[in-house]
């Protein structure tokens, strides 16, 4: 059954993430300026922007680490202000900064997250085992995270972010600092979750080579969305031969 929300729209058909007229200042400086973003459900969507574009600030607002000063954020139709628990329960996050306790094992880090989400004990035990197996770390479950490689630690963070079965996964520069092989493995894993489990992913990166032609791509530059659509359409719209060239063409002349 389709349940109309307070605004009368359908939550069943709602986008995974709808951001409208979102602006945010820090210390009087505009960091995000009238941002409108739509992330359809069950897609891998790239938030592409150079360092300082505002990607982390945007994620801080979507995760309610910061409170939005103006504009609206809805997650699967749930307004982040009015229905924050329902909205946030749909969300998993992999932060740019490493966020595991290095002195705890992989398994203990996941137990901590399960407790924060109020997961029943049996379900937590099952999901921790499932996720560690899925990311290929079942045999390392009891090892302290301090001894993990960067790629292994990232895989634990992805397992943790997915533990409570969120429908929308936010990844902030999830491959930064990893070698080519680990980067490729992590992107392939996350893309696989979109295909096989209909997960929605918003993948923030400054690395243009992580974008595939069919990916819905949002170009964020100095706090503004300059373009959004399939990467191949963005390239065609400016008559470029690659996304790299299109990105330069779209952002050049927009420097402060
Ligand atoms: N707490 C803060 N105080 C002052 N300025 C900030 C703060 N947080 C972010 N900024 C500024 O806001 C802008 C956007 O930063 P943000 O971290 O959101 O960008 P980003 O796209 O995630 O880049 P990066 O990948 O380098 O983190 C930058 O100019 C940054 O210096």
Automatic annotation (TrEMBL):
Keyword Nucleotide-binding part of the UniProt annotation: yes
SMART domains in UniProt: AAA (SM00382)
Positions of the ABC transporter domain: 17-247
Natural source organism: Dongia sedimenti
Protein name: ABC transporter ATP-binding protein
Keyword ATP-binding tagged: yes
Keywords on record: ATP-binding, Nucleotide-binding
MF-aspect GO terms: ATP binding
One Pfam family recorded for the sequence: ABC_tran
């Amino acid at each position: 059954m389709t349940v109309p929300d307070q605004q009368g729209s359908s939550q069943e058909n709602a986008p995974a993430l709808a951001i409208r007229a979102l602006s945010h200042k820090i210390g009087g400086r505009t960091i995000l300026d009238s941002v409108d973003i739509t992330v359809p459900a069950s897609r891998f969507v790239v938030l592409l922007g150079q360092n300082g574009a505002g990607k982390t600030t945007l994620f801080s607002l979507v995760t309610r680490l910061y409170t939005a000063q103006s504009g609206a954020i809805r997650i699967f139709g749930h307004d982040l202000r009015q229905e924050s628990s329902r909205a946030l329960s749909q969300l998993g996050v992999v932060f740019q900064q490493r966020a595991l306790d290095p002195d705890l094992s992989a398994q203990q880090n996941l137990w901590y997250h399960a407790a924060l989400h109020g997961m029943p004990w049996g379900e937590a035990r099952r999901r921790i085992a499932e996720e560690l197996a899925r990311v290929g770390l079942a045999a390392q479950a009891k090892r302290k995270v301090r001894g993990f490689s960067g790629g292994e630690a990232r895989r634990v963070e992805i397992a943790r972010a997915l533990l409570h079965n969120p429908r929308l996964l936010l990844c902030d520069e999830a491959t930064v600092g990893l070698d080519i092989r680990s980067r490729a493995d992590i992107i392939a894993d996350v893309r696989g979750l979109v295909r096989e489990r209909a997960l929605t992913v918003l993948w923030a990166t400054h690395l243009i080579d992580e974008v595939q032609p069919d990916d819905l791509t949002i170009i964020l530059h100095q706090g503004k969305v300059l373009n959004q659509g399939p990467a191949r359409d963005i390239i065609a719209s400016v008559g470029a031969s690659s996304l790299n060239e299109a990105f330069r063409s779209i952002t050049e002349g927009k420097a402060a």
